[in-house]
Amino acid sequence: MSDVVREAVETTVAQLRPLYINLNLTGWEAATTGTPEALAAAAQAEAAWMRFWADPVAYERYKAWDDEGVAGDDPHLARTVHLLHLEYAQGQRDPATIDEMAALSKALTDAYTNFRPEVDGRRLTANDIHQILENEVDSDRRRIAWEASKAIGPRVADQIRRLAVLRNEAAQRMGYPNFHRMSLTLNELEPDWLFGLLDDLARQTEPAFRELKAAMDAELSKRFNVPVEDLMPWHYADPFFQEAPMVGGLDFNRLFDGRDLVELALATYDGLGMDVRPILARSDLYEREGKDQHAFCMHVDREGDVRILCNLQPSLRWMETLLHELGHAVYDANIPHSLPWLLRSYPHILTTEAMALLMGTLPFDRDWQEMVLGASPEAAQQAADDGARRFRLGELIFARWVMVVVNFERRLYEDPSQDLDALWWELVRKYQLLNVPDGRERRPDWATKYHIALTPAYYQNYLLGRMMSLQWDSWLREHAGGIVGRPEAGAFFHERIFAPGNTLHWNRQLEAATGEPLRPEYFVRRFA
Q1: Which of 29, 35, 424, 525 satisfies CB 3.0 to 4.6 Å to 446 for a cystine?
Q2: Burial bucket for residue 338 (CB in 10 Å: 0-12, 13-18, 19+)
Q3: Are 335 and 454 in contact (CB under 8 A)?
Q4: Which residues lie across from 296 on neighbouring strands?
């Protein structure tokens, strides 16, 4: 029987591979150009991809084989069958639904890619908005920029609601209460475990978050000459309060004035024995009109064509982002090609997020400041001390932001017709302790976050990835003395993280690598 299964898998992969490559290539073209032709091609590729996974016969076949364990004693074949079962389960939709979802996705991608906020008649980039929120001291100018960044919400909110309804209908036909629970389950995350973990973490982090936010607000109050109780969302460092503002201590942005971020990234990865030059040669690193303003990594073919997209500027945020995206990239690039094609990936998106998040925080590391940036020992120590405080503040801020997004999506898919505008600000007030500007509870500010539209049920992976990265970090400090400039750390990643590919469940792979399954205590001890 295993021979029959193996032959079926080979046939499926032969059909799947060209669709996968075309999906990625057209998506890359759409993200780097934003032209109508590129967006249309990407939408067609997405529709073809969705139609492939909608095959009910293939779904029933792989489900039965997975349930019956017919792969025999071949663990790679058993894992492949299981993954195909999960993918086909997520893809069960009728042709009309697929066509409508693809059209909505195209329209939303076009809207987010080409949206530029307008202030005083000038079109601004996302980088422009961030610079205003980092540097401007006039509250009215900050408010205008912040509000301009939210202007996309009313343009896309109805389309997102409709997409949520379509996703729910498909999930309910598969026996799930809604899309959110189905997506978590079929991506090997147990929903109630996740919700319980977030609720517990919210309780454990709230006292530390309140204390640090109060100190931060006192400094922001002085900077902007605004009473603490009158601080508004536009007084923080970014449009969503998901990052730590530059308060107290060292101005990290100044460390990167006149520095070549690419050269710094090369030195960082060279120190681990990882050559990222081929990746960077295929990448698109600087902003321009028509280009996606976010950042991502793409492994086009699972055969080595790994590339990243960034919009670099000499700042801490983009140094972190470049190291982050290259963290995804080295993971993809170093999975052995000896593995079956379907297993040449990470075991879960949170695992590659762990690698990216770990690398992205290295600018706060004393060794990185001295060995890569070239700081004196005294300056490196100051940066490490200030960086530790900023890292703690930033992680608590981001954890609370994740709680907003995940809980919003949970309730969005429970009832897409509810008052989502008010719900968004209810959660922002609860978890982020922000004031709600007059009238914002009647505006779809939730729709300005493109993840909710285009990468649903994803955001928890950032926080889970951070937890995993802290577990790796603890192991590496004990067994390799740290990360920066240590080939032993590179060997850990190559041998224990990259080499297994997607041959194991993510938590079993973590236990095999560090001796422990995921333990949120590492996060709580470090930050709360």
Answers
A1: 424
A2: exposed
A3: no
A4: 309
The SS3 of residue 309 is: strand
Q: 412, 164 in Cβ contact below 8 A?
A: yes
Q: The pTM is what?
A: 0.94
* Residue 383 burial by Cβ neighbours in a 10 Å radius (0-12, 13-18, 19+): buried
Residue with structure tokens 């990185």? 368
Distance of CA 178 to the CA centre of its chain: 22
Quote the CA–CA distance of 188 and 180 in Å, as a whole number.
13
> For the segment 231-265, what is each residue's pLDDT rounded down to a tens digit?
999 999 999 999 988 776 788 989 999 999 999 99
3-state helix, strand, coil in the chain (%, to 5): 70, 0, 30
CATH number of 192-527: 1.10.1370.30
* 103 class by beta-carbon count within 10 Å (0-12 exposed, 13-18 middle, 19+ buried): middle
pLDDT for residue 248: 67
Boundaries of CATH 1.10.1370.30 in the chain? 192-527
Closest to 397 measured CA to CA, from 194, 222, 247, 249? 247
- The string of pLDDT tens digits covering residues 432-457 is 999 999 999 999 999 999 999 999 99
Considering Cα of 154, then 296, then 518, then 341, what sign does the dihedral take? positive
Tokens read off for 141:
């100018």
The residues near 489 (Cβ < 8 Å, ≥ 6 apart) are 272, 476, 480, 482, 483
Is residue 97 within 8 A of residue 170, CB to CB? The reply is yes
Spatial distance between the Cα atoms of 316 and 363, rounded to a whole number of angstroms = 8
For 28, 130, 485, the CA distances from 126, given in Å and listed in that order, are: 19, 6, 33
Rounded distance between C-alpha atoms, residue 136 and residue 118, angstroms? 17
Q: How would you label 246-275 residue by residue, b for 16+ Cβ within 10 Å and e otherwise?
A: bbeebebbebbeeeebbebbbbbbebbebe
Query: Using an 8 Å Cβ cutoff, are 63 and 5 in contact?
Result: no
Residues 474, 468: Cα–Cα separation, whole Å? 10
What type of residue is 98? I
**DSSP assignment string, 69-85:** TTTTT-HHHHHHHHHHH
CB 40 within 8 A of CB 49: no
Res 463 pLDDT > 90: yes
Are 266 and 459 in contact, with CB atoms under 8 Å apart?
A: no
User: What are the phi and psi torsion angles at 66 (to 5°)?
Assistant: -65, -45
Cα–Cα distance, 27 to 41 (Å, whole number): 8
**Which DSSP letter does residue 437 get?**
P
Whose structure tokens read 């995206």? 325
Alpha helices in 415-456 (DSSP H): 420-427, 450-454
- In the three-class reduction of DSSP (H, G, I as helix; E, B as strand; rest coil), residue 239 is classed as coil
CA distances from 23 to 17, 28, 100, 112, 299 (A): 10, 9, 18, 19, 11
